[in-house]
Specification:
The protein is α/β, with parallel strands linked by helices and 136 residues long. It has one domain: Rossmann fold, CATH 3.40.50.510. It has six helices and four strands. The protein has a four-stranded parallel beta sheet with strand order 2-1-3-4, sandwiched between helices. Helix 2 (41-55) packs across helix 3 (71-80) and helix 4 packs antiparallel against helix 5 (110-123). The longest helix is centred in the middle third of the chain and has 15 residues, at 41-55. It is globular and about 55 Å long. It starts with a strand and ends with a helix.
Amino acid sequence: MIGILVVAHGDLAESFVKSAQMIVGKQEKVMGIGLFEGESPDTLQDGILQGIKELDGGDGVMVFVDIYGGTPSNRVAFSSAKTDSRIACITGANFPMLVDCLLTRDSLTLEQLKSHCMDTGHSGIRDLLQEITRKK
């Protein structure tokens, strides 16, 4: 089973995980790690490395990060060089891609899952009012 790690600023990562589990049910090998005000980036990186270690059951770890270039993404990038685990990482994570990842991770390879989640993330961005008026 591919592990899933969400890394973000504040409570966002854990909230994403808890909210996704409301939809798909309780999940194994999934974790959210947040960077909180006043916390050292090194402490975050230690948590990321520990999370990857705990989540990797041999199939790798899919990592979702909130913002490209922020401290969480930088620390995931640094961590990727310090782990023996296979990881894939997507920045700009959104809720549809996380839910879909939880539903499809057992049927895809890590590389396929990354590509699939990126497609889901892009297709989940819609103009709601345009969508509902188009269907009239």
